[in-house]
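re: that complex we talked abt at group meeting.

here r the seqs, copy pasted straight from the sheet so there may be weird spacing, ignore it
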Amino acid sequence: MNVIFIGAGNVAWHLASLFSEKENLEITHIWSRTKENAEILKEKIDKKSIQVYHSLEGLDFSKTDADLAILSIADNAFESVLSKLILPKNCILAHTSGSQPMQMLQKASQNVLGEKIEKIGVFYPLQTFSKAKQVDFSQIPFCIESNDKEIEEKLFTLAQECSEKVFKVSSKDRGILHVAAVFACNFSNYLWTISETILKEKKLPFDMLKPLLEETLQKALEINPSNAQTGPAIRNDKKVIEKHINMLEEMNLDDNFCQIYRLMTESIQNK
Amino acid sequence: MNVIFIGAGNVAWHLASLFSEKENLEITHIWSRTKENAEILKEKIDKKSIQVYHSLEGLDFSKTDADLAILSIADNAFESVLSKLILPKNCILAHTSGSQPMQMLQKASQNVLGEKIEKIGVFYPLQTFSKAKQVDFSQIPFCIESNDKEIEEKLFTLAQECSEKVFKVSSKDRGILHVAAVFACNFSNYLWTISETILKEKKLPFDMLKPLLEETLQKALEINPSNAQTGPAIRNDKKVIEKHINMLEEMNLDDNFCQIYRLMTESIQNK
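got the structure back, here u go
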């Protein structure tokens, strides 16, 4: 399979690296709005024959022999990229986004006449990716979707070559998983950033919290988070809660820290 | 050392179990407001000679030969328990709370005349404890404090018998660590509970998020949370954010979910 990567961000970075190790997959083109990102990814894959593009005009791939185009770009770039994207007739277009409905892909064309692309699907790895951090794909759940049984099977098989955990998931359910993932991943990480900020301000090492973070997660995985809640909020320990809010106000690091403390406490108590 | 446990909650449960395995420590008494908790803990330790008390009058230990009393109760019970607690003159009183100042302990007495207790300290394991979940004490940071050098050393040595990570920490710094821990542990766990609730509502398995949770933490531990933020908020992806809020409103599970989504998103963007 000849594969085009459209996008060279965090997801594309890891997925393209993985694909480049597979004998049956050949990355032929990388497009990224940021030329540098595409060049760095090409370098990482270390394959000179890869062609790199970065202008919107460079999105006309109609003359290539691509079998699969992986669209892995920021959600807010979908419209502009898809409106310019032209793929050969038999090329499958699959995106890697948690929140974009599959049908969105039909804004791409399969020829210069602007005929709608037919072979579409989703190839969504439910994971957080940063370039600086290696990941083990074998344990990442892949959510696969297509409007065509045959394409779905192709994408499913491809995902199975990447991971042990492959699921057929509708656009609607993928959206639900994505919003749940934002709470579980992005927002949790931000809470840890608050902790880091508080400790840094008082010159205390963030390392002291690491065993707590690990145990908190292990416990949640073992007995489920709804059974694992501890702390002053669930005990309704008003004095401690008040003391914490006073401390946060005195530190005066960020007004939102206090607001988050109050709202989270109230929510835990309303449960 | 003869040790009294005042409290039989989550922390006391694990600490008393650990102490009972040490040859140089002898648990002689367990007090808990809830008689059943004290009895269950006694049973777990499996030592018939332990005496169990649960009434406030049972807090007069003046006639025992205790060397150390571990006060491990809810923060909001400190006042009432300490006002009744009487310990032999040479007994050290140490609490296990993250948020209570050490001086609070001077509300206990060292004899029936109500003379203030002198030998006080803090023995705080910075970890989340639930009875249902075993913990590895060797990696738990212990925060030690005392008003007396000799007692501090005693508590420090005792903590070193429990863990590789023992620190001398002032009441003020312990308070900072505790509020940081509430964000990092209690509030994160609640975010995961929200994810669990959302997925359950739509009959999607929480298990699908587990690799994401693990990777999110591993990444934060490796490159620090402030360098690990991903997601629609940090990308300022307005359409996805709006879509998520609409989904949460439609699901109508808990008004706070929407509020938390908005506030966390705004905070990440203000960073």
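couple things i noticed - The longest strand of chain A covers residues 26-31. The two ends of chain A are 50 Å apart (CA to CA).
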